[in-house]
Structures
1.
Amino acid sequence: MTIKEDLAARLAVAPVVPLIAEDDPAIAVKTAKALQAGGLTVIEVVMRSDAALQGMEAIIAETEGLIVGAGTVLTREQAQAVQKAGSQFTVCPGLVDDIVEYCMGEDIPVYPGTMTAGEVQRAYALGLRDVKFFPATLAGGVPMLKALGSVFRDMRFMPTGGVSAANLPDFLALPHVLACGGSWLTPKESTHGGDFAAVEQLAREAVAIAGKSRNQG
Ligand SMILES: O=C[C@H](O)COP(=O)(O)O
């Protein structure tokens, strides 16, 4: 199975991608294990500090059965660095042709952030059919996604930014939503408070919501 097929299969079952933003590798690993225990096996580790790469490497080294990708990738060099560290997919806040072309050339699934019809169309022209929709709630939320989905009929979106258990059903009900991403599953008060059972519970809750609301809209 290719990584693209594996991702597609997992996101079909549990269309939720939790974000881990963590400087402490030990906490990053415990967070990833809690998410996995709760049923989420596709995890995005965001590169928002110098220590984040080590956290991602620790998760890859100390867990089994997860697909671990890198988020907040801003440059081609960073895309190369996360690939070298073992990242299996790449997420960017915006659309940068250079990164998209690099990842496509390496057969790495890449989800650049888009929020306008122009950005989605540029991603489409680059050959992408799956993109991130960011920042989802500020960029128009469900109504905007409905509008984009009506014209980009074979494009699928990963809304991220402002997604929570409360609005997850509305996003997942849309037929062209591939998955939702977000940090609501990894609250710092839980991860830094050592309450990984709470993280597991949030993951379970998201899986249950997804089971009820998937593509019902
Ligand atoms: O791309 C990542 C976003 O910053 C996640 O937003 P969130 O913290 O609202 O889930």
Note: The mean pLDDT is 97.
2.
Amino acid sequence: VKLTGFELIRVAMPLVAPFRTSFGVEHERDVLMVRAVTPDAHGWGECVAMSEPLYSSEYVDGAADVIRRFLAPRLLAAGELHPHQVCDLLEPMKGHRMAKAALETAVLDAWLRERGESFGAHLGAVRDRVPAGVSVGIMDTIPRLLDAVDGYLAQGYLRIKLKIEPGWDVEPVRAVRERFGDELLLQVDANAAYTLADAATLARLDAFDLLLIEQPLAEDDLRQHAELARLVRTPICLDESIVSAKVAADAIALRATRVINIKPGRVGGYLEARRIHDLCQAHGIPVWCGGMLETGIGRAANVALAALPGFSLPGDTSASDRYYAQDITEPFVLGPDGHVEVPSGPGIGIEPVADVLRARTTSSQWLGA
Ligand SMILES: O=C(O)CCC(=O)N[C@@H](C(=O)O)c1ccccc1
């Protein structure tokens, strides 16, 4: 593609309800969107960085700054470039994977729209709809948690993921398992809130036939997760730790993980996400698509990724109304079978609704070639 420039757009996205995890409560997302413009098309990328560096070291103002000052100029200086060259062009700049992912996705989306090829087709999707799981935050009381889970199951979600943290783990999980029965696909996400000293507590979760325990220990605790995996029967799934295919290979070799949550923003983009998918398939490691409360822009690309053959577990590819009363795009909805449809149009196959984007935009900046 021949890039004429990038537009950085910040949008304010109020959440339908506060979303509480082990690192805090979110009421609104301040989302950085990247629009890549070429003479014949434009493409979209959503940066998944949060407002504060709580999930990882990245945060939305930092992502905008590193794109403005260091990353976009390199791509604009390249003139003509293939989307598959973006990660090599940006490699000299260390880290900032969520910022890089947004740029690569926008360039890839523009290139695909020019060619009339869908994101799913390009990545190797084998399905036109994917099973939807839902992430349930930490609640004030167990009755409130049970009501929330009941509501999501009534909407048709096929898998429940419960956020846990020390003090909110065994009892809430027991209550959900007892209330909704043994058939319910149930997993937990600790967001790195535990240490090896908590192994006995985490082992008590083995009683509830969970699909997996997600990221119980710190992001850089690969060896410790391998040790925990010998003390706990439930499969360990890594999220924050898996920042690249290289680290995924180490985690698999160390037996630190038996399932991997793939988040394109965390690993630097959808092309690296596909490399991790391919690596995991080679090792018989199931993967699923994680979520970062994306708007319909990021959601569209995630749903396409979740349609690849190795994505054998429902992902956090919920409907738009899980987080937003009004999405920036036409909303993703849950079908009667608890699945979400993979967009089939060129590129990510969806566009922001112009007047919603305008109404939600808090700032925009043009970075010209
Ligand atoms: O459904 C979604 O998009 C969110 C799923 C979810 O729980 N995301 C968690 C996570 O740790 O995976 C998260 C929430 C907020 C910020 C970062 C991460």
Note: The chain has two domains: 5-115+351-368, 121-341.
